Amino acid sequence: GQTSPAVMMILFELDEIFTFQNTTLVNTIVAFALLAVLALTVIYFALYRFALRPINTLRATADKMIGGQYDQRIPVSGEDELGKLALTFNEMALAVQQREISLQSAREQAERSDQVKSAFLASMSHELRTPLNAVLNFTQFVIDGDTGPVNEFQVELLSQVVSSGKH
Predict the structure, then answer these.
(1) pLDDT confidence band for 1 (50 / 70 / 90)
(2) Rg (CA), the chain
(3) CA 129 to CA 22: how far, in whole Å?
(4) Is residue 156 a contact partner of residue 149, using CB atoms and an 8 Å limit?
């Protein structure tokens, strides 16, 4: 026998098709938006944990060092670029701390040297002034004629001795 093709028709209202399409579109957009928000949240927390937090720690530690707290160090969290940066920063902080200690020691030594120099100059000044005053007084006695007669030329020379000694 002969078979005839069967045809089947399904009737749908166009409103039902548009409603189905709109519902599917809205559901797809909402699902995409939720996945995008979730992906951005995960990216932000990963970026914060692995980049922003270490950089903020580095900045805070640098600010403390600027304030004079040279014993500050940054925890090294890994072998990545930020870990290497933290390691280099800690080496720099150690060098700065050691230089600060050296400078403080040199400053204290310079202050002690200045005190010793001042004491030495005061002592030498006293030790030199005492005999010089005696020389000036005896020279003045000679100028005044207390030890015998002197001529004008001798008075002029002795006056220069007194003037230089007072200077």
Answers:
(1) low
(2) 49
(3) 111
(4) no
CA distance 3 to 8: 15
* Residue among 72, 102, 103, 101 at smallest CA distance from 89: 72
Distances (CA, A) of 39 to 36, 54, 82: 5, 22, 24
Q: What's the rounded Cα separation, in Å, for the pair 143 and 159? A: 7
Give counts: helices (H), strands (E), the chain.
4, 0
Note the pLDDT tens digit of each residue in 46-62: 998 888 888 898 899 98
Q: Which two tokens stand for residue 147?
A: 């030890």
Q: Enter the tokens of residue 49.
A: 């944990």
